[in-house]
Structures are given as C-alpha cells and as structure tokens.
Write a structure and sequence with these properties.
about 475 residues; mainly alpha; 20 helices; globular
C-alpha cells in the first residue's frame, strides 16, 4: 500500500504513474468502444446470427466471471498486480486481432467469435480485479475517490466518442476490419502500463493456506457484511437485466428500427452522455445528499426511464432509446461511484483481490444468465418483448436497497482498522456523523466523498469530477 503522505495541493493526475495508468485506460477504452459496435454487427450482419446466437455471444463475453471469478481474486492476492495487467492486455490484443485476420482469409465463423469472447472475458476478469487492487498502490487512500472518478470520466468519455467512431469505421471498412482499433488499443495500454515504476510489494505468503480457504475468506467477508450483501444483490439484479439489454439491442436496432451502423454508433454515443454526467456529478451529489442515500436514490429515480426502450418505434425511436439510455446510465454510474469506493475503503488491503473478485463473481456472474435469457425471449417473442422484460427488471432493482439499513442512513460506515482480522468478518460499524465519512474509501466505478475537501479543492479536475469530500466508494454495475 502506498504510504506517501497526502499533499492537499496535489491531485492524482500530478503523479506520473497514475497518469500512465489513466492513459492506458484511455487507449483500451477507446478501442473497446469501437468493438462494442462492431462485434455484434459482425454476428448480426456478416454472419446472419439469430437473436439467441447473439445472446450466446454476449454470454460468452461474460461467462468468465462465473468460471474463474472467485479463484482469480485468491490468485491475484498472491502476486504483483502490474504484470497481470500488462499480460491481460497483450492477450486481449491477440484475441480480438484474430477477427479481422480471419475475415480477410474468409474463414470467420460464429465459433471463432465465441472463442474470442471467452478468451477476452477471462483476461478481462484478471485485468479488472487486478486494476481495482492496484490503484491503492499508486494513490493514498484519501485520493482514491478522485482517482476512480478520473478513471470513470475516461470510461464515460470513451463511451461518448468511441461508438460514434466505431459506427463510422464499420460503415467505411466493415465490422471485422473496424475491430483492428480495439487490438491497437489493448497494445497501447500494455505499452503504457509497462512504463509504471511504482514499487509493488509481493504479498507475503501465508503458509498452510489453501486456495479453497482463501476463496472462502473472501466470500465470508462480503456475505458477512449486511451492507455489502445488499449492494451485491442489487448490483447482480441490475446486471442481469443490463445483460438482457446487451443481448437484444443490436438485433432491435438493425431488424426493428432499421438503423445503419453509423446511426447505431451515434445512438450509443448519445446514451453515454449520461455516464459522463454521472461521473462528473457523483461526488457533489454524495456530499449534498449523503453517500448512503445516493446508493438507493440513483436506481430508484433513473430506473423507470428504461421503459422508453421498448416504446421506441418509427422515426423518433432512436431518440427515445437514447433518452432512456442517458438517464439509466447516469444512475448506474452515480450508484457505482458511491458503492465501489465504499467496498475498497472497507476492505483490509490483504483481502482486496479476494473481495473484488468475490463481488465481481456475485454481481457479474448474472451477466451470462441475463444474456441467455434475453436471447431466448427475443428468439421466441421478439426483441421488443425482451426489452419490456428488461424495463420491468429495472423497476424492481432498487427494492432490496429500500428494505435495507441504507434506507435510514445518510453516510456509510467508516473503514475498520487495517489490522482487523478478516477471519472475524467485517465490523458492522454504524453510520458516521452527518458531516460525512472521513476515512478513505476505495473505488471502482464511481465516486463518493472521503475527506472534508470541497470539490476540486486540490486543483485537480479529476477530483472535481469525482469527489466533493473524499470519503467514498465507486463501482461498476454496468
């Protein structure tokens, strides 16, 4: 863990290693957003896939969280994280780069798409868990929310620019060739990450500890805490219905709304504006409303906009779909900023990998199930019916939160001491005072406040985008 003292005038972006990490995220996210448009279009347009086959492709992309999600955290807690990040990027570069090569040789098939999706999914599991556990090496805890906010801002910005670029490339070059941009993005990310020079200690081995015992310890930590349990249940439900959307939206756009690849790219870019707005506003909202309140208010107020997706039709169909996407993605990012930082802040450093992997297993493990469900419903009843199922699901997502202890809290509990025994399970600390949490909380996708620092007080625009008072959490439901 980085013990560098906090300098109030120095934000995360003033640190060279963090800038390299952020630049790598820019490169990887830009390419991935191109593939977000291109890969489903390869299946739907080039290979004439059925709705269920498209759902199966989406399931293959996320099946790794069920297959290796839990042991990945235990393995990563035994090794340095930076080499894992670099190798995962190289593997993803080679996998997605095989698609345009196969297309040029006229041997591309759905089987290859499934294999590429599965390989990149496994690499992404290790990359994401290592990434969440590596950030605290680069930043002191009171800068984690600002750092996570900066990363989420990059992700949201890529979601705005990338799909439009991807749609244009697909229109000009065809879907398989457009995926070359993704391969170069992963390669650039690997090159940038390899230049990070932060000293990362090799975790001390724990004699006599089996992989099974370490995985169980991560499960006990997450499932033994009442707040982490309800956050896991809510995020898992959100991801289940998000996967239904992911599995059927391209089929709906192409075969129901009759949109071109360029129009699909613009639609995705327009929807992503909500994610960027959420990343920019999450810290301020947490400071004013309360971090705990924000976790249940965000999905409660934005979920109903999902009803616009199945209502989309005719000439204005794409506009309605985009409005729904803007609102739902805004709520998802705000929710994620608040809950992921909380998770990281609550967890002892030695358990970070297992905690993050356990949460990813629980909340992302529903993605392949949702994708198969969406594909099956679309196959039997049409993509619009599948979208109605998705919209109904988003209406019930916040229900567990409304019946949880979060409903009566303003802010989230302070982190336990770092030397607290993980075997004893997390302490069920009570909520902090209304002044807001003052301990650092870790991040993932969003941001919540952590210290009594006004937004942007450190002069860092990333902090202004993510935090009002540095005490928070972040996450990524979608």
């Amino acid at each position: 863990m980085n013990e560098t003292p906090h300098l109030p005038s120095t934000g995360p972006s003033a640190r060279r290693d963090f800038r390299l990490l952020l630049s790598g995220a820019v490169a990887a996210q830009a390419g991935s957003q191109v593939t977000l448009v291109a890969l489903p279009l390869v299946a739907v347009v080039e290979l004439d896939a059925t709705p269920f086959q498209v759902g199966l492709l989406t399931a293959a992309e996320t099946a790794a969280f069920l297959l290796v999600g839990l042991p990945a955290g235990a393995w990563l807690d035994r090794m340095r994280k930076l080499p894992v990040l670099v190798r995962a990027d190289v593997l993803r570069c080679l996998a997605v780069g095989s698609i345009p090569v196969a297309a040029a040789l006229d041997v591309l098939s759905l089987l290859q798409l499934y294999l590429v999706a599965l390989v990149t999914g496994v690499a992404t599991v290790f990359f994401d868990v290592a990434h969440q556990s590596f950030l605290p090496v680069l930043l002191p805890r009171d800068r984690l929310v600002a750092g996570n906010g900066a990363i989420e801002t990059v992700r949201s910005s890529a979601q705005i620019a990338g799909p439009g670029l991807g749609g244009g490339l697909v229109q000009l070059l065809g879907a398989p060739l457009a995926i070359v941009a993704d391969a170069f993005g992963f390669l650039a990310s690997a090159a940038l990450l390899s230049r990070i020079r932060a000293e990362e200690r090799l975790p001390a081995p724990e004699p006599g500890r089996s992989l099974r015992a370490e995985v169980a310890e991560g499960l006990r930590f997450v499932l033994g805490h009442p707040l982490l349990r309800v956050i896991a249940a809510t995020t898992a439900a959100s991801n289940l219905f998000s996967a239904v959307l992911m599995a059927v939206q391209t089929v709906f756009w192409v075969r129901v709304l009759d949109l071109s690849p360029a129009a699909i790219g613009v639609l995705l870019s327009a929807s992503a504006v909500g994610g960027l707005a959420g990343a920019l506003c999450a810290g301020r909202l947490a400071a004013r409303i309360g971090q705990a309140r924000l976790i249940w208010l965000a999905p409660l107020l934005t979920g109903p906009f999902a009803l616009l997706w199945p209502l989309a039709d005719g000439g204005v169909g794409a506009v309605l779909f985009a409005i729904g996407g803007v609102a739902v993605l805004f709520g998802a990012v705000v929710y994620n900023v608040a809950q992921v930082s909380f998770r990281q802040s609550l967890c002892p450093p030695r358990l970070l990998g297992r905690m993050n992997a356990t949460m990813r297993f629980l909340v992302w493990g529903t993605l392949p199930l949702g994708a198969l469900l969406g594909g099956a419903v679309a196959e039997q009843a049409g993509p619009r019916t599948a979208l109605w199922l998705c919209a109904a699901g988003f209406l019930v997502v916040p229900v567990p939160l409304l019946f949880s202890p979060l409903r009566g809290m303003r802010d989230l509990p302070s982190a336990p001491p770092e030397d607290a025994s993980a075997d004893a399970g997390p302490t069920d600390a009570g909520p902090t005072a209304d002044a807001g949490p003052t301990t650092d909380v870790g991040p993932t996708a969003g941001a919540a406040p952590t210290a009594d620092v006004p937004p942007g007080a450190d002069g860092d625009p990333a902090a202004d985008a993510a935090a009002g008072r540095d005490a928070a959490d972040a996450g990524r439901a979608r």
